[in-house]
Amino acid sequence: MYGTASQHIDHTQSRRSGPRKWLRAVQWLIAAGLHHPKANQTTMRIAEDLAARMDYDLGHVRYGLDEMIARLGLSRGYICKHISYLRELGALAWVQHGNSTNINRLKGLLGYAGTATVYAAVIPAAYDHAMGHTVIGTGYEARIVIDQRGQQQPTIPAQTRRQPVDNPPVDNSSSQGEETPSLTWLREESQVQMVGGVTTTAARSQQTRPTKTSSRKKRATILGATVTAAGMQLGDKLAKAIRRRVPWTRRATHDQLRWVCADMGEQQWTEDQAVRFAVEAGHAHRAGFGWDPSRPHRLIAMELQAQREQQQDDQAMQDALAQAIAWEDSTAYRQMQAVRGLLPQPAPEPERTDDDRRRARMNWDNWPDVLDHFEEDELDAIDLYGKKLVNFAIEQGARARRNDHAYL
Questions:
Q1: Smallest Cα–Cα separation from 170: which of 179, 161, 110?
Q2: Class of residue 126 by CB neighbours under 10 A (exposed 0-12, middle 13-18, buried 19+)
Q3: Does the pLDDT of residue 105 top 80, yes or no?
Q4: Residue 124's CB: how many other CB atoms inside 10 A?
Q5: 183, 282 in Cβ contact below 8 A?
Q6: What is the pLDDT of residue 184?
Q7: Handedness of CA 297, 298, 300, 304 (dihedral sign)
Q8: Quick count: other Cβ atoms within 10 Å of Cβ 300?
Q9: Do 191 and 166 contact (CB within 8 A), yes or no?
């Protein structure tokens, strides 16, 4: 795990993952203390920044160090350190090393653009062992086996759901119109029978006649809830609010929006909740900015399904953590301790003297290292460098960040 060769997808012992499951694994790895006390909440913050930009299917992400410095307000060296912690934890692997090769020239374009560093989200075997996962295969292409026997079948067909990375990717090349390949389609209902006797205005199919058995069956919403008159009436109100306040949704008919809002109505959402959900769903796909979806109701329905899946995943994670083997009791921990016992132990660091402090405070050009030291351990940095040099380093770091932002 700790060699640089093992931190590449061609040699890593960790399996590939998508951003959501990867973030949960990173959180567990940091809490387990696999990287001593160095991996901390800052490491998690950097992992969240990477996950927000990751490709959903492959889990790949461009490093973008300069942009991360601007977004997170951390120094270059500090971010690089925590990225290395993620690699050493077995949670990050190189797909491509960045270099100065002009990628524009290779594409036959003018100008210069260096080759970017690309990372892949990966999950180490220690996490799978602690969670009791059964793993098939080894290395980057390994997969976990999920026992779905006895689980309730989803209301929406499986092909309409977004596929996780632990399964083979889905070919979306036949998506219609202007829709992006990442969107999946939800089957629409042509007619709904609700508790209380209220129905939609959609036309009855002329080709099939419902049987007596199916006519008595209560229909379900997109998320599988039983449709009620009260829920549909509230959904009608929410659909009007969304159409009125979110312009890109107006290409859908009122009946289409009312149907996807039925789940919101069953859950007693307010108008502000429904409108905020539609706005955030649009922002996630740049709807209304660089793209106007021809079927806005399907985008909202897809995000409702994704939200429900996230909630189910979070609950499953909580249940798994409650039943997981403690890291100290795991076989991987015992093996690691045995290996560490064979390694020579480092000599204890000598106590700091006043002479050490005087030498450290003589070189003010070393302010970047002083700032990195202060960000890792404030009290220790002040003890070594003194308040004046530490304050100078903080001012210089702030000035450097302002200058970097001025050139963006």
A1: 161
A2: buried
A3: no
A4: 19
A5: no
A6: 40
A7: positive
A8: 29
A9: no
323: left (phi over 0), alpha (psi -120 to 50) or beta: alpha
pLDDT at 223 over 80: yes
Which amino acid would we find at residue 338? A
CB 249 within 8 A of CB 300: yes
| pLDDT tens profile 160-205 | 344 444 433 333 333 344 433 334 444 433 334 444 444 444 444 4
> Tokens 């997981």 — which residue?
324
Phi, psi of 326 (to 5 degrees): -60, 145
Nearest Cα residue to 89 out of 6, 150, 172: 6
pLDDT of amino acid 38: 80
pLDDT score at 29: 86
Instruction: Report the 3 state secondary structure along the chain.
Output: CCCCHHHECCCCCCEECCHHHHHHHHHHHHHHCEEEECCCHHHHHHHHHHHHHCCCCCCEEECCHHHHHHHHCCCHHHHHHHHHHHHHCCCEEEEECCECCCHHHHCCCCCCCCECCEEEEEECHHHHHHHCCEEECCHHHCEEECCCCCCCCCCCCHHHCCCCCCCCCCCCCCCCCCCCCCCCCCCCCCCCECECCCECCCCCCCCCCCCHHHHHCCCECCCCCECEHHHHHHHHHHHHHHHHHCHHHHHCCHHHHHHHCHHHHHCCCCHHHHHHHHHHHHHHCCECCCECCCCHHHHHHHHHHHHHHHHHHHHHHHHHHHHCCCHHHCHHHHHHHHHHHHCCCCCCCCCCCHHHHHHHCCCHHHHHHHHHHHHHCHHHHHHHHCHHHHHHHHHHHHHHHHHHHHCC
Residue 286: which region, alpha, beta or left (left: phi > 0; alpha: psi -120 to 50)?
A: left
The percent of residues in the chain predicted with pLDDT above 90, rounded, is: 21
Q: Which of 283, 238, 286, 289 is nearest to 265 (CA)?
A: 238
d(CA 223, CA 226): 9
Q: Which has the minimum average pLDDT: 236-250, 319-333, 348-362?
A: 319-333
* C-beta neighbour count of 123 within 10 angstroms: 28
Nearest to 96 by CA among 65, 124, 61: 61
